[in-house]
């Protein structure tokens, strides 16, 4: 791709499609636009990256007018307008980052002509319509983030066959239907499907994507329960399944998920006992179980959660005295166990939770007096 091709078929088009922009550099309304539409080589323009070449044994940026553009990064730059179809002129582009702008319109099918593309960031814009099938032609794609737009419809099969994908972000859109098939995505580590309109159950095959580190399917219309096959996700660090309509018992599968740091299952309809195996999650920092229908008591095994910072168990049906396991959670900052069926007295040992900032216990059947030792909690802000 020559400088003139790129200028006439891509850069001009992006600029002209932006609101209130003219050819004069002084009129470009982006936050950062150094050298754009100037006589400087395209590789000198803000956000444009060209290959680094060796000249007389020294690595130097290559500013020749025939240089290939390998990266276009205009993130968080107040860019408006639509994505020009002439984007395909940048045939050696490896990274396209237009995230966090005000770009509207649809995703042009011509993006599928960027055969070298490895990273695509279009998240946090105003894009609408369907994801074009042609994106599946970008066989080297590793990271694709389309979240926080107005996209809808089904996820194209061609996207789900991009075997090199490591991260797929489709969150905060209007995608619907059943959850996508992940059987081809053997290297997937990050999957964001949250805040969409997906229905049905979690496919058991999700448990076979053993590379998953971060899985978020919160805020959909999913039902059923967590597949037992999730026990195979031994690399999982973040699991968000909250704000769906899951029911039944939460399976006791956490023995093998020892890397979990964040577990959020709130706002569902889970019933039955709390899984004792959660107590094996020594690295767990955030545990949100509130707004379910659990029964029984907090397992004593949870006393191993010594690094837990936030524990939400409010508005469930948990019974018994104040959970002794909580007294071992010395890193707790936020503890919410209000509106349950607990009874008895509040223990004096609460004062040993030195990091507590927020403590909510109302709406239970506790009796007796408030321990004077709570006055020793110097960080406590709300009780």
UniProtKB/TrEMBL annotation:
<dbReference type="InterPro" id="IPR003591">
    <property type="entry name" value="Leu-rich_rpt_typical-subtyp"/>
</dbReference>
<dbReference type="GO" id="GO:0016020">
    <property type="term" value="C:membrane"/>
</dbReference>
<keyword id="KW-0472">Membrane</keyword>
<dbReference type="Pfam" id="PF13855">
    <property type="entry name" value="LRR_8"/>
</dbReference>
<keyword id="KW-0433">Leucine-rich repeat</keyword>
<dbReference type="Pfam" id="PF00560">
    <property type="entry name" value="LRR_1"/>
</dbReference>
<dbReference type="InterPro" id="IPR001611">
    <property type="entry name" value="Leu-rich_rpt"/>
</dbReference>
<dbReference type="GO" id="GO:0009653">
    <property type="term" value="P:anatomical structure morphogenesis"/>
</dbReference>
<protein>
    <recommendedName>
        <fullName>L domain-like protein</fullName>
    </recommendedName>
</protein>
<keyword id="KW-0677">Repeat</keyword>
<keyword id="KW-0732">Signal</keyword>
<dbReference type="InterPro" id="IPR032675">
    <property type="entry name" value="LRR_dom_sf"/>
</dbReference>
């Amino acid at each position: 791709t020559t400088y003139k091709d790129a200028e006439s078929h891509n850069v001009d088009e992006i600029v002209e499609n932006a609101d209130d922009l003219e050819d004069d550099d002084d009129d470009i309304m982006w936050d950062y636009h150094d050298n754009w539409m100037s006589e400087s080589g395209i590789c000198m323009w803000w956000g444009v990256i060209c290959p680094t070449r060796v000249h007389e044994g020294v690595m130097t940026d290559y500013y020749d007018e025939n240089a290939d553009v390998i990266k276009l990064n205009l993130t968080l730059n107040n860019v408006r307008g639509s994505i020009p179809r002439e984007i395909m002129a940048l045939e050696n582009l490896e990274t396209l980052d237009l995230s966090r702008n005000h770009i509207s319109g649809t995703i042009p099918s011509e993006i599928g002509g960027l055969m070298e593309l490895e990273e695509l960031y279009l998240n946090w814009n105003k894009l609408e319509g369907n994801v074009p099938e042609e994106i599946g032609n970008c066989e080297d794609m590793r990271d694709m983030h389309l979240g926080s737009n107005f996209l809808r419809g089904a996820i194209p099969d061609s996207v789900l066959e991009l075997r090199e994908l490591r991260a797929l972000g489709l969150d905060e859109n209007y995608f619907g239907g059943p959850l996508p098939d992940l059987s081809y995505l053997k290297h997937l580590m990050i999957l964001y499907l949250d805040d969409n309109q997906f229905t049905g159950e979690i496919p058991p095959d999700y448990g076979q994507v053993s590379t998953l580190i971060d899985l978020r399917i919160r805020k959909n219309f999913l039902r059923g329960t967590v597949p037992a096959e999730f026990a195979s996700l031994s690399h999982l660090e973040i699991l968000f399944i909250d704000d769906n309509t899951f029911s039944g018992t939460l399976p006791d599968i956490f023995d093998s998920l020892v890397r979990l740091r964040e577990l959020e299952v709130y706002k569902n309809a889970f019933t039955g006992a709390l899984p004792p195996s959660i107590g094996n999650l020594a690295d767990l920092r955030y545990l949100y179980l509130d707004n379910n229908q659990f029964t029984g008591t907090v397992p004593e095994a949870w006393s191993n959660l010594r690094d837990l910072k936030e524990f939400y168990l409010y508005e469930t049906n948990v019974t018994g005295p104040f959970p002794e396991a909580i007294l071992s959670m010395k890193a707790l900052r936020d503890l919410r166990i209000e509106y349950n069926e607990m009874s008895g007295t509040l223990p004096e040992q609460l004062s040993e939770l030195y990091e507590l900032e927020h403590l909510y216990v109302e709406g239970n059947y506790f009796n007796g007096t408030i321990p004077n030792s709570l006055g020793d909690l110097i960080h406590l802000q709300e009780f």
